TrEMBL record:
It catalyses: D-xylose + NADP(+) = D-xylono-1,5-lactone + NADPH + H(+). Its EC number is 1.1.1.179. This is D-xylose 1-dehydrogenase (NADP(+), D-xylono-1,5-lactone-forming). GO terms for molecular function: D-xylose 1-dehydrogenase (NADP+) activity; nucleotide binding. The keyword Oxidoreductase applies. InterPro entries: Gfo/Idh/MocA-like_OxRdtase_N, Gfo/Idh/MocA_domain, GFO_IDH_MocA-like_dom, NAD(P)-bd_dom_sf. Belongs to the Gfo/Idh/MocA family. Residues 24-120 form the Gfo/Idh/MocA-like oxidoreductase N-terminal domain. Residues 135-260 form the GFO/IDH/MocA-like oxidoreductase domain. It is an enzyme of class 1 (oxidoreductase). Keywords: Oxidoreductase.
Length: 344
C-alpha cells in the first residue's frame, strides 16, 4: 500500500521541485508482483522505469541506488535497514523505525558507524500545515501558553476480515493501533508540547496509559502525557483506535489566549488545515499538496536534500527523536501489557 503511494508521489512531475527523484530499482518478492507494481505506477509515464529484483538484497547491492526506501511491515524494518546500511546505502524507513527502542538503537548505531544517512519516514512532521502550526504555537505564541491538547486518530481498518497473516493483525509483524497510528498522536503531542525541541532536549512527560488488547494487539489505546516543566502542568491526551473512523477535526489545542483545532480530509497523518480562535476572531490556515501528490514528497525531498548535501541526520526528524518516540511507546506498551515477540 504505502510503497505504491510513496513511489507515485515522488515520480509525479513537479515543475518547482527542489530535487528530482529517480526510482532506479525495486525489490519485491516476485517478478510478477514487481511488474504489476511498475505498470500501476508508471502507466504511460515517460519517466525511466526501475529494474525489478525478486529479492531485496539485489537492491542493496545495486550501484545505481543511493537511497533505499523501506516499506515493509514493522517487524521487518530492523533487518531491512541493517542489510541496506551494511551495503553502504542511505535509508529512509517507514514508521515506526522498528518494534522497540532496543532495535531502533541497534539500527541507528549501525547507520552512524557506517556513516550513512538514516531517517524514520514520519511524513506528517514535514507537512507545511504542521510546520506553520509550530510557528504559531512556539514562535508567534498565537494562543499564549499552551495548556492542554486532545489528539485522536481513528482508522476503521477491517481487522476482523483480514487473514491472520496481515500486517494489521499479526503481532509478530508488529500489528496494533499504537505502532500503526497511535505514533502520530504522540508525534502531535511532541509538536504541540515540545517547544520545538526534539530527542534528548524534548521535555519528558509523565505518562499514564491504558490499552484494549484483543488477539495479541492493541485495538485501542489512551495516553495521558503530563508535562511539569513550567510553572503549571500541561496535559496532552492522545488516543487511537483501529475500530472506528475518527473525526475530521482530530485535535484541539487550548492555550491561555486562544485555541487551535486541526483538520484533515483523509486522516490525521495528512493534516489539511488548522483554525486559530483568539479574542472572538477565527482564522483558517489551509494547505494543499503539490498537484498529483499525497504529501510524501515533503519528507522525500527533505531526506534527498540531506543526502545530496552530505548530512547524515535530518533536522525535522533526527534519530534521537525516533529513539525518544520508540522508548515512549515501549513505556506505553509496558503499562498496557502489550508485548511483541521482538521484546523478548
Ligand atoms: N506513512 C504512512 O502514511 C503509512 C505508512 N505505512 C507504513 O508502511 C509500512 C508498510 O505498510 P503497508 O504498505 O500498509 O503494508 P502492505 O502489507 O501493504 O505492504 C508491505 C509489503 O512488504 C513486503 N513484505 C515483506 N515481507 C512481508 C510479510 N511477511 N508480510 C507482508 N508483507 C511483506 C511485501 O512486498 P513484496 O512482496 O513486494 O516484497 C508487502 O507488499 C509499515 O511500516 C506501515 O506502518 C503504511 C501505511 C501508511
Ligand atoms: O501510517 C499509517 O497511516 C494511515 C493508516 O491507515 C495506516 O494503517 C498507517 O500505517
Amino acid at each position: 500500500m504505502i510503497s505504491t503511494m510513496f513511489a507515485s508521489d515522488i515520480i509525479a512531475p513537479r515543475p518547482n521541485a527542489p530535487v528530482k527523484h529517480l526510482i532506479t530499482a525495486l525489490g519485491t518478492s516476485t517478478q510478477q508482483k514487481g511488474n504489476s507494481f511498475v505498470s500501476k505506477i508508471w502507466g504511460n509515464s515517460k519517466e525511466p522505469r526501475p529494474v525489478i529484483y525478486d529479492d531485496y538484497k539485489s537492491v542493496y547491492a545495486d550501484k545505481q541506488v543511493d537511497i533505499v526506501y523501506v516499506g515493509t511491515p514493522h517487524s521487518l524494518h530492523r533487518q531491512n535497514c541493517l542489510d541496506a546500511i551494511a551495503a553502504g546505502k542511505h535509508v529512509l524507513c517507514e514508521k515506526p523505525l522498528t518494534i522497540n527502542a532496543r532495535e531502533a538503537k541497534e539500527v541507528i548505531d549501525a547507520a552512524r558507524a557506517k556513516g550513512v544517512a538514516l531517517m524514520e519516514a514520519v511524513w506528517t512532521r514535514f507537512f507545511p500545515c504542521v510546520q506553520e502550526l509550530q510557528k504559531h504555537l512556539h514562535e508567534h505564541k498565537s494562543i499564549g501558553d499552551i495548556r492542554r491538547a486532545f489528539i485522536e486518530y481513528g482508522a476503521a481498518l477491517p481487522i476482523s476480515s483480514l487473514g491472520p497473516e496481515s500486517r494489521l493483525r499479526d503481532p509478530a509483524l508488529g500489528a496494533g493501533a499504537l505502532l500503526d497510528i497511535g505514533m502520530y498522536t504522540l508525534m502531535y503531542a511532541s509538536v504541540i508540547m515540545g517547544q520545538n525541541l526534539l530527542g534528548t532536549e524534548h521535555p519528558v512527560p509523565e505518562v499514564i496509559s491504558a490499552m484494549s488488547i484483543t488477539d495479541g494487539i492493541d485495538e485501542s489505546n489512551v495516553n495521558v502525557l503530563t508535562y511539569a516543566d513550567g510553572t503549571r502542568e500541561r496535559v496532552a491526551v492522545c488516543t487511537s483506535t483501529l475500530l472506528s473512523r475518527g473525526p475530521k477535526e482530530f485535535a484541539r489545542i487550548e492555550g491561555s489566549e486562544g485555541s487551535i483545532t486541526l483538520h484533515t480530509a483523509k486522516g490525521p497523518s495528512c493534516p489539511t488545515s488548522f483554525v486559530l480562535k483568539r479574542g472572538g476572531e477565527e482564522t483558517k490556515f489551509a494547505f494543499e499538496n503539490p498537484p498529483g501528490t499525497a504529501g510524501f514528497v515533503f519528507e522525500a525531498d527533505s531526506f534527498a536534500l540531506d543526502v545530496l548535501n552530505g548530512r547524515l541526520e535530518n533536522q525535522v526528524m533526527p534519530l534521537d527523536e525516533t529513539l525518544r518516540m520508540m522508548a515512549l511507546m515501549d513505556g506505553i506498551r509496558d503499562q498496557g501489557g502489550l508485548k511483541y515477540p521482538q521484546d523478548q
